[in-house]
Design a protein that fits this description.
It comes from Streptomyces caledonius. This is Peroxidase family protein. Keywords: Dioxygenase, Iron, Metal-binding, Oxidoreductase, Peroxidase, Plant defense. GO terms for molecular function: peroxidase activity. The mean pLDDT is 85. The longest helix is centred in the middle third of the chain and has 17 residues. The radius of gyration is 20 Å and the shape is flat. The chain starts with 10 loop residues before the first helix and ends in a 10-residue tail after the last helix. It is mainly α and 87 residues long. The protein contains 4 helices and no strands.
């Protein structure tokens, strides 16, 4: 399909062809790319940096954001999920 030329392989397809460590959903290379890009996205998002202040959000909104976590977001959208931790 690619004529034996690795430089013609789409990056994502190439990453999906890489073997995954046991128990992981994707390869080590794709994980490293994800980690690098996630931190860059957060650093460049003005709502997490320069505009994360009461003049942009309300004080109540900032408190609500600080009070929540990934677990509370998931449970808000999927309240019937079993909880493997104490309530």
């Amino acid at each position: 399909m690619y004529g034996g030329r690795l430089d013609r392989v789409d990056t994502l397809v190439g990453n999906l062809a890489e073997p995954r460590p046991a128990g992981f959903g994707f390869s080590d290379s794709l994980f490293r790319i994800f980690i690098l890009m996630a931190s860059r996205r957060l650093k460049s998002d003005r709502f997490f940096t320069t505009d994360y202040r009461p003049e942009v959000y309300t004080a109540e909104g900032l408190e609500w954001v600080d009070r929540n976590s990934m677990v509370t977001v998931l449970l808000r959208h999927h309240p019937n999920w079993p909880r493997p931790w104490p309530a």
